[in-house]
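Hello,

Our lab assistant flagged a job as stuck in the queue for most of the afternoon. It eventually completed. Since we weren't sure the result was trustworthy after the delay, we are filing this so someone can double-check. Below is the sequence as submitted and the structure that was eventually returned. Let us know if re-running is recommended.
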Amino acid sequence: MNERQAFSLPGIPVFLVLLLAMAAAVVWLVGAVQGGNPPVSRVLAPALSIAVIGFLFKGLFAVQPNVGRVMQLFGRYQGTVRDQGLRWTNPLYSHQPVSLRVRNFESSKLKVNDSDGNPIEIGAIVVWQVVDTAEAVFMVDDYENFVHIQAEAALRQMATSYPYDAHDDNGIALRSHGKEVNAHLRDEIQERLAKAGVDVVEARISHLAYAQEIAQAMLQRQQASAIVAARVRIVEGAVGMVELALEQLARRGVVDLDNERKATMVSNLLVVLCGDRATQPVVNTGSLY
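-- returned structure --
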């Protein structure tokens, strides 16, 4: 079932016409009852006219901006009116308002396992709007509740597809690849909500953390990984500096070092450059031997 346009007319012209018709019918009725006891047939026609015109007034309704009115006739879908302002349609139609405005909500914090089996807490913000009023009203029972439940189901499914932290440079992780993860989440939600006439404008992670029972252990692992990475960078820089120092000394002829003295110099420089505390200088006044 897809949305289609329902029959409706501009409301202000119709209102003016009905108002004039009602005034004429009232004047007709007043003229018929004047002059004593008129026959019933003489009064019946203007009375029926007033009743019919009054019933036609029931067809007037207002449409707010970004709101659609779903029209039904005895339970059968007749179409949707999106033209804003005062409108008029068949008085027998029942009409249900459906908001077309952009809406958003934040899911609850879900506890799931990532692809490595680690328990994590995750939450998301979903921005959505109704694009097909017929599907939203007739294809699902309660489209707002449907959006919330399916969004959380899609969030769970997406969270189990990636690890919390990347194990290599080519892997996608929840913590480090926000753009890719959010795009996957949006696609997952959109696939589930397509049958409800809903378009997902945006979906993004709003909360991400390890579960409380493993948070401390994972924090220690992250700290250890950071320390190791920093040490690797320090060692790489220190080796480069030592190599540069030996090259500069040899090229300028400042001192002639044999292999044993070079080894001693390299050891001292690496201790100074790689140590995490300030070194204490020792003045050597004699020979190295």
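-- support follow-up --
The delay was a queue issue, not a problem with the job. The result is valid. Residues 212-252 form the longest helix (41 residues). Residues 272 and 279 are 6 Å apart (CA to CA).
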